[in-house]
Design goal:
The protein is an alpha+beta fold and 352 residues long. The chain folds into two domains: 166 residues, no CATH class; 149 residues. 35% of the residues lie in helices and 20% in strands. It contains seven helices and nine strands, in the order αβββββββββαααααα. A five-stranded mixed β-sheet has the order 4-1-7-8-9, with no helix packed on it. A hairpin with a 2-residue loop joins strand 2 and strand 3. Helix 4 runs antiparallel to helix 7. The longest helix has 39 residues.
Length: 352
């Protein structure tokens, strides 16, 4: 998931919104549904006012609109494509579109309220015939975009969280403010490295650091209990090799979860370093001032980057959680597939 502020896009969003309303665009926007028979389907849900989902690809760097949600001046969108999974019961407003399968696209969620714009952009390469759900929520000075793969599995609605990647559209880089061309990194010098390290170190709070003393592992007795409970549910006998692999997979999951905080900090530090390497020496000197720098107007940009990196840290943490859970489910599903468990037990481990 992503939670970002895009205040610099407020003017753009305002003009786009009112141009659409005054210019006579339909409630369905300018994006035409994909015509392929195996097109993917995507539902956009938002409980916020003036929410939009925009579509970008190499041929549409300025974007195509899918229509507004929860807008006071237009009727609610009735754009639907017959998805097999029903929307959540609390969905205030939603629309559905078809996407060309196997084609990398860039989608942007956005909500315009008061004097700010909130939302984010992300890449998606839809699978053939797959269904997806994007949800935008806002409140308390932040907004959050989540992406799920939605499926009907054994008569039940299943929503599987997906990672949000922001790779942009290579063909659109430098074409507009949505896909800016970033400056190249400047060469490292001893002084620059010292300043960059100082800025990064001052941004890391205690809760971001891994603490081995707080890492928890299941005792052998607890693992025995989990296995005993699983055996009781199955109602049939499996070989000892299966249960040895079951135990091994549980331990692997715990090990990955225990290392998540350290990996999060590692990726956070690497990303912050890349961003700071684009600044000149004078900017680095200014950003490396003591903590009272946040109160100085000259360092508004430093504070904005500090907040953006704090959000990035939680994005990476969420990403690693999803990756770790996904790895665990994949291992367990492969195990049950190998031993033919699903043929005899409906609640076996399955791939999403």
């Amino acid at each position: 998931m992503l939670a970002l502020h895009f205040g610099s896009l407020r003017a753009f969003a305002t003009v786009a919104l009112f141009s659409a309303l005054l210019g006579g665009c339909t409630i369905n926007g300018t994006y035409p549904d994909a015509a392929e028979p195996d097109a993917a389907k995507l539902r956009f849900i938002s409980n916020t006012q003036n929410a939009t989902l925009d579509y970008f690809d190499a041929a549409h760097c300025d974007g195509q609109t899918t229509g507004p949600l929860n807008n006071l001046f237009t009727s609610q969108s009735q754009r639907r494509v017959g998805m097999s999974v029903a929307p959540p019961a609390d969905a205030k407003g939603y629309l559905e579109i078809k996407l060309k399968p196997d084609q990398d696209t860039f989608l942007r969620t956005q909500t315009l309220g008061g004097y700010s714009v909130c939302g984010t952009g992300f890449n998606l390469t839809p699978q053939r015939g797959a269904e997806y759900e994007v949800t935008l929520s806002a409140g308390g000075g932040y907004c959050k975009t989540t992406l799920h793969r939605v499926q009907r599995v054994d008569g039940k609605d299943v929503r599987t969280p997906m990672l949000l990647d922001r790779n942009g559209v290579a063909a659109c880089v430098g074409r507009n403010a949505i896909f800016p061309k970033l400056p190249d990194a400047l060469p490292d010098t001893p002084r620059r490295v010292t300043l960059i390290n100082q800025i990064i170190d001052s941004s890391v709070i205690a809760s971001m650091k891994p603490d081995p003393a707080k890492a928890t592992r299941s005792t052998p007795e607890h693992l025995d209990q989990l296995i005993a409970e699983r055996k009781a549910k199955l109602g049939f006998t499996l070989p000892d090799d299966y249960w040895a692999l079951y135990r091994q997979n549980l331990i692997a999951f715990e090990d990955e979860m225990a290392g998540k905080k350290g990996e999060t900090l590692k990726r956070y530090t690497a990303e912050y370093r890349v961003r700071l390497q684009r600044l000149d020496d004078q900017q680095l000197e200014q950003w490396a001032l003591p903590e009272d720098k946040w109160a100085k107007p000259a360092n508004a940009a430093a504070f904005a980057e500090y907040k953006a990196m704090a959000i990035y840290y939680f994005q990476i943490s969420n990403r690693l959680t999803i990756e770790t859970v996904g790895n665990h489910l994949e291992r367990m599903a492969k195990m049950d597939e190998q031993y033919g468990v699903c043929a005899r037990f409906s609640d076996c481990w399955k791939r999403a």
